[in-house]
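2024-03-11 09:14:02 DEBUG pipeline.ingest accepted 1 chain
2024-03-11 09:14:02 DEBUG pipeline.ingest length=136
2024-03-11 09:14:03 DEBUG pipeline.predict start
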Amino acid sequence: MATLNNYRRARGLRPFRSSPRLHAAAVRHSGEMARWGYFEHASPNGAAFWRRISVYYKDTGYRRWTVGENLEYGQPALEALEVLQDWLASPPHRANVVSRRFRDAGIGVVIVESGAGVFGGLPTTIVTLDVGSRSH
């Protein structure tokens, strides 16, 4: 999260607050992708990413609630700066990184020795960034 927040600070944006709930959602999703060998925002059952996140980062009781998600995978030596650079090169992912709307964030990183499915049996690092904001 430090690399991401340093980038935001350097551009006059408030750093994301670390959210244990968004972290839990992100770890779950990275783990699911590793276990089931897929790489998508939707869950294996087809549920939208925001439904999965809402299990952890509740939307009930809030007047305003919004979430976003960035994904990345690569070699086990994948570094935070590489991930950030890839997200910045993708307009929708960049929008999440520089958004003033999102206040909270959690990152889930899973490293597997032999990634199933789309990971081709290779050693793989899978990263999920979940971001959100909610207010009463």
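2024-03-11 09:14:41 DEBUG pipeline.report The first strand starts at residue 17 and ends at 18.
2024-03-11 09:14:41 DEBUG pipeline.predict end
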